[in-house]
Structures are given as structure tokens and as C-alpha cells.
Amino acid sequence: MTTSRDPNDYRACVGVVLFNKNREVFLGHRNGAIGDYVWQFPQGGMDKGEAPREAALRELQEETGVLPSQVTELGSTDDWLYYEFPTDFKHSEKARGKIGQRQKWFAFLLQGSDDQIDLEADDEVEFSDWRWGTLKGAVDLIVPFKRNVYERIACEFEAFSKPHE
Questions:
Q1: Reported CATH class of domain 8-161
Q2: Widest Cα–Cα separation across the chain
Q3: CA torsion angle for 110, 115, 120, 122 (degrees, to 10)?
Q4: For 105-139, what is each residue's pLDDT tens digit?
Q5: Domain boundaries defined on the chain
Q6: CA distance 152 to 100
Q7: What distance in Å separates the CA atoms of residue 26 and residue 57, rounded to the nearest whole number?
Q8: pLDDT per position as a tens digit, 56-90
Q9: Do the bridges between strand 71-76 and strand 39-40 make them parallel or antiparallel, or are there none, so unpaired?
């Protein structure tokens, strides 16, 4: 289903699904978040003039400490995925006149070990904790207004969640 949207109404962002060799996915506990739906994949805004893949690798490094040289790209979404903020959402993007985000998603495979993950690699710490989980299970952990995007990612990246011999 395609709807007519003005991309300028949405903040351009990227998201990353980081798989380990067992094909589990990285889930980060948002720093300072409490209650339900505090786990998510790394994601963030694109800098001016930055290509989506470049932004994804930068966000991955900032939020997890994983370097571009430590991952292999498995794939990406063909389309931009959209979500809108709820009416009571008070985040800064809504204050800047954006009604939601449009995201390009990338799947990467971690080539090393868990000790390469460093949540304090950047001055702005996004996650207070992390764990490995399942791709399909992540859908139930994300805030409801982002759930349609996570459902789409789970479908598009399903092949990457199967261990390879």
C-alpha cells in the first residue's frame, strides 16, 4: 500500500539491524527510558550531504562502538519506511515541524565478538544496556508508533536471521 507523503514532512533517518554470527539481533535499552517498549535497534538522523549507508555506519559506531571494518553489509530496505509521531509526542523533531521520520534500514553482520560493543564509545550515550534477541521478537519490544516499521524490517530481513552453514 502506497500513500502520498511529502518527504519534507519527515526527518530523514537511518536504522541498523546488527546480527551476530548466530543470527540474533542487537537490542539496545534506550538510555533513561522506563516502562514498556524501551528496547530498539540503533537509529538516527542523517547529516546534511550524508548518504544513507554512510549515516548507518556512523550511527552504528556512535551507538554501539562497532566500527565499519567490523561488519559486513547483508542488505538494506529498497524503500524508505515511514512512521508518524503520536499527537502527544513531545520530542524535538515534532517541535521542529516534522510529523514523523522516514528511514532507510540496513542489515549488518558483526564479524567479531561481543566485546567489540561499547555503549560509551560516543559522548552521547544512546543505550544504557544491550542484549541479543530475535528479529521477530523485536517487533513486540518497540514503541507502538514505530511497530509498522519493525514489522516491515522483520519481513524484509527475515532471510538474514537464518543461520548459514
A1: alpha beta
A2: 49
A3: -40
A4: 999 999 989 999 999 999 999 999 999 999 999 99
A5: 8-161
A6: 17
A7: 15
A8: 999 999 999 999 999 999 999 999 999 998 887 66
A9: unpaired
